[in-house]
Design goal:
Elements: H1 6-11, H2 24-43, H3 53-80
Helix pairs in contact: 2-3
Length: 82
Amino acid sequence: MKSINYFDEFIHGDKKSPASFALICPGVASMIFGMFFINFGLVFNGIIDKYSIMYFAFMLPFMFIQYKTIIYFFKLKKKFSL
């Protein structure tokens, strides 16, 4: 996406495309995958304890992706607002 200047044109630039909202899907999907991985893969199998320091350490990257997804969503929503 960087090689075709997607972010510069559709997120930060003036171009509008409803298809640019597809950027939100991978962010949401990664958070869902992360929750399954942490809870069913690590907690359920006894590798880490739920709500421990390691639990939140594993969750941090997924939380960051979700945060960035929310920021981009509101940027796109603002672009399409009247």
